[in-house]
Amino acid sequence: MDMINLTIDNRPVSVEKGTSLLQAAAEVGIKIPSLCYMKLHDLNIENKPGGCRVCVVEVVGRRNLAPACCTDAAEGMVVQTHSMRAIHARRTVVELILSDHPTDCLKCAKAGNCELQSMAQHLGIREIHFEGEQSTFREDTSPAIIRELNKCIRCRRCEMMCNEVQTVGALSAINRGFNAVISPAFEMNLDHSVCTYCGQCVAVCPTGALTEVDHTGAVIRALSNPAKTVIVQTAPAVRAALGEEFGGEPGTLVTGKLAAALRRLGFNYVFDTDFAADLTIMEEGTELLNRLTAYLGGDKEIKLPMLTSCCPAWVKFFEHQFPELKDIPSSARSPQQMFGSIAKSYFAEKIGVDRKDLVVVSIMPCVAKKYECSRDEFSVNGNPDVDFALTTRELAQLINLANIDFNSLPDEDFDHPMGDSTGASVIFGTTGGVIEAAVRTAYEVFTGKKLARLDFTELRGMEGLRHATIDFDGLPIHIGIAHGLGNARKLLEDIQKGTSQFHAIEIMSCPGGCIGGGGQPYHHGNAEILKKRQMALYREDSGKPIRKSHENPYITKLYEEFLGAPMSEKSHHLLHTEYFDRSKK
Amino acid sequence: MADYRMHLLVCGGTGCKSSESEQIRDNLLAEVERYGLNDEVQVVMTGCFGFCGKGPIVKVLPDNTFYVLVKPEDAATIVEEHVVMGRKVNDLLYLDPESDEPISDSKQMDFHKKQVRIALRNCGVINPENIDEYIARDGYAALATCLSEKSPQQVINEIKLSGQRGRGGGGFPTGLKWEITSKSQADQKYVVCNADEGDPGAFMDRSILEGDPHSVIEAMAICGYCTGSTKGLVYIRAEYPLAIQRLKTAIHQAREYGLLGDVIFGTTFSFDITLRYGAGAFVCGEETALIHSMEGLRGEPTFKPPFPSESGYLGKPTTVNNVETLASIPVIINKGAAFFNSIGTEKSKGTKVFALAGKINNVGLIEVPMGTTLREVIFDIGGGIKGGKKFKSVQTGGPSGGCLTNSFLDTPIDYDNLIAAGSMMGSGGMIVMDEDDCMVSIAKFYLEFTLDESCGKCTPCRIGNKRLYEILDKITKGLGTEEDLTRLRSLCNVIKDTSLCGLGQTSPNPILSTLDNFYDEYLAHVRDHKCPAGQCKSLVKYSIDNEKCTGCTLCFRNCPVGAITGEKRSPHFIDNAICIKCGVCYDKCKFDAVSVS
Amino acid sequence: MNKIKSFDDLKQLREGLQAKIKQRNSGSNPESIVRIKVAMSTCGIASGAKEIMNFLTDELEQQSIEAVVTQTGCMGYCYAEPTIEVSLPGKEPIVFGDVDTFRAAEIIEKYIIHNELVDGILPVNYRTIDN
Amino acid sequence: MPKIKLSQRTIEIVREICASFENNEGELINVLHETQHKLGYLPAEVQELIANELNMSVAKVYGVVTFYSFFNMIPQGEFPISVCMGTACYVRGAEQILHEIKRQLNIEVGQSTPDGKFSLNCLRCVGACGLAPVVMVGEKVYGRVAPQQVRKIIAEYQEGCVKPEKHEM
User: Active-site residue A369, yes or no?
Assistant: First the structure.
């Protein structure tokens, strides 16, 4: 390996060839500030437009300052990261950004979490020496995401996520010069675009330019309405991340405190989306086995692979981009919607409440879930199955608002019956988890044998595209896994070309799966956080007494009392859905 | 019927006219008549000889005698001695500055050397749509020589030896650029001709492509041979339809002759050229932006390295050369590196084409050896300032360059001198300004251009230039303060220091150079709220002098907004509330009654 | 059009072309004729060079003056567009600036027919690499 | 932006253009040039069609269209007037010319007259600096224009000139 020797702030540094100055400095504990640069190591995601110019440093002998993110270390280089010239330039650049930025930090959704605000603080900016025209873009509100472009600093992270990682192509840089900004085509609103609401743009936005639609107010109103019974479900990935909002270490599981907090917020029943995830496995797993059996039996009408359908952004993605494949994904609704549907039928009946007086709130790591619950097909006579979807961040907001000291809460359990779940459902929150849960059930149902081991490590990991073959008692089942829509696209193109070898494919839109969802606490570019959340979910799984969905007694009971059997007519009506061609072709 | 045996040409250029060349002509005519030679000798006025420092000039044909510093009273001597007696008037001959000897035949005079046409050698000489005329003037011989007699490295060495540097602005050595691409390993490499001439006030590349497209084609093929590329692309402004058409015709003809395509000159070398069109973005003159634009993307620059020579178009090694650079290549091969190297200064070799424009008499395209002074260009070749006004400043390098004053007039032009003077070579636009031009407004004009053309990718260029413009706007409106001047300079320096590409790194140059060279003018704006040149509309007021106004109504009739009132034959009056300060009244008044304050 | 297959092909073609030009230019040659070049760059065309070219062609034909009128690129005298260069057999080419149809007629009448110069000649003030 | 429905003929024209560049995403700028040449401008619907044909996101197409000043999203006037704002023209009074045209037509830069006859734009240098200041009406170049001439130039076109041939959307 070629090593490069250089000096940074008078300290000798030795790094591999091809290392940037930013990275080289970090290796000796010198943290050069930067705004646009972002790297998620394990996910192979890097944003390096070299645009913000905050990371400029002085390189002796060079005419101008060098952007540390883009400049590679070179032999004998002498770098000053805090010379007067560099500091002056850095502060001027940040002041320039601030001169075209609203200074309404006190009431900004991103206050306290804003990288620009931290930068101004970090550089000790107390005065903005420049004034002049500011951008005046129209605010755009969609079912899930709000764009306030006056707060945009043109870091291009959202554009990179939307185009390179997700290959959605809803956003692009438009115009030029002072008017350049990131926008959908024709500066239309996001809801007129191909946006999937995956929320990865929100997840990486350093400022308040991209945020989720705030539903906390509506939830507070529902909670304080005595005529309403308000129940809540919380998605698997939430428990592995919520703690971060209260200063916890990433990867801390806060399942018990989460249930306690929700109860204190005044929800009448505190349930778990995991219950619906187990239900999803029953439906989706059965569908897979049916399709597989028919396929192996030579039925030419049956198409494989079957694709998972839990992720609403993924659903919208193929509806826009691969409408001709809309018969391939499982028809099973997502756990959030299965929960809503069962809650407003089975459970409403059970407690004797009219669905109109039952409010279902979900806590999700996701912003697309806000959109999903607003889809027409998920409501009955105008009454949605799920009324409001809050992100993990919004829940934290709500907890703070209710004066709850989260960290001192006791651990509590979810309520019966829809709060009971298995280990299989917990891992729904990470890439590979849904398919692993499905394999646990499908194997046992298909072969009639008990699994010797439950940890399918071959399905786990962080690589964007993975595949594994599981031996179903002599029948090799080929499984594909993709997270990040760009990776999903590759698998879909194979299917289009007819070269796909898989029987089943799991797709999650967000890098890492739901743990890296657009509604999770901000990772600020630190991929380690995602890994720790993932480990937390696997920990929770292995600690569960029941780890296979079909063994969830409450699920068994649900089928006995209400649904009949998986894929029954009632199941079809309540738990399955259809997809639409949203392309303009 | 007259059959003239002799012609007396009197320079009618503006410079000479002001030194009584009309009187000289009249006197010559009278003398010719006195000798009864009207049918034998003709006296005519010509355009500018471009030797204004020694004007007025009289040239005698057919013997090419060149008389300098001629006075009206010399007419008699010239006719008597030269025309009648056939003896040259020694006192009026031009003295060779080195030997101090009089030169009688103007073909021997060094003033012809003021302009040496290498890149422009065929412009205005051949029919650009006829390849035969190009071939008759040694066209494609350089390519043939390279292919049949030299190895790629030998050709590169020749180019390196010639000392040629890129004419697009940066001045990177051409040979070195080619060498880097030639040493890069790749299955495909590209040669790109940058014909996205965007500097306002520059039209050299357009003229070359319109006048001599084959020279560029030939050079691209030579570059392809040297670097191992088989594909050439010309990135040309869509705003140049004629150049595009001529280039297309030329490419077609070259293909017909087998000079483009496969097996060129019977060798294994293949090369062909396609066109890509710019779409109105100045920043695409920057190599990386240009390449992105050719790939169908927004023309946003990216950080270098990697340089296009290593990773360019479609990620392949790409040599990007400017039109003028390429047009000189065949000459370097045909005449040898030593020929090219013998012209110019120590670090800048060869000639440079300039587009002379602005308040100058001989607006036009010129080509001078590197090292020629600005004075020679402006006063000798350019014929001085229009309308007899005073020279104030010359702007080189377009929006990346600076405004130079009187004190730089004797600076020899080359890459390094211009940078040292706070400007730059740029692509070769040279705009001359006179006393009526407000330098703050000029700086503002360039900033407005940069603002319009900034891609918006990096902060300093996107917001910084906007703020610079706003400060300048404030100053031209009389609302600036001295503190603004400090802030202006400080921000300029940061923008230069931190911008992503050449556009931003040089965009403050027009401000910095005017701050350096015309600080008093800035001070007048911020301290006294006055615009000395009378150009800043908010700071000027037009008024009519009651004493001088004759009531001719000319101003009244020409005022576009009806701001002038008054009865016929009595003094007129300007209503400043309506006046848009267009200055028409000032220009029109024959009695000097309109004044600007 | 024949393909040029080698350096020798090119040389041969060049020599042929050069000989032809030389012959056309020499004053002693009976076949030599008047040649006019019109600067047809963007500036020239914008100032009316095309009209001048048409005018010259038509006018010369009407007056039965044997001449070749061709286009060429920018001569560099942008301040004096449209610009034309007239070569009479055996004489040095002369450049005329600011040529409108009136002046074009004058040039034919005075210079081409009667070898009489008209005001407004543009003296060539540059060298090319040939000299 | 008013919605327009593309005629079948227009759709065919655009498809043909895309096909002539092998529906290659990298040829986007050439496709846009050719399309604008044929249709006069590039409305949203045409951009969507191009995006579809080249299999790329319409946001990217729009990003490119808005980056380059040569591309128009609104129909140009029958006689597009462009004022050169290059340096040479600027120092020779292009601003006054522009001002006068704005006044005469009562429109701002980037707008068209209500009757659709004229539209007004600024250009960067057209390279005819010798003729500064320069105004172009369509392809015709007017050099050494004085503010007083503006009225005359506009009048040339106001009096029933032939309508330029243009494909209707």
Answer: yes
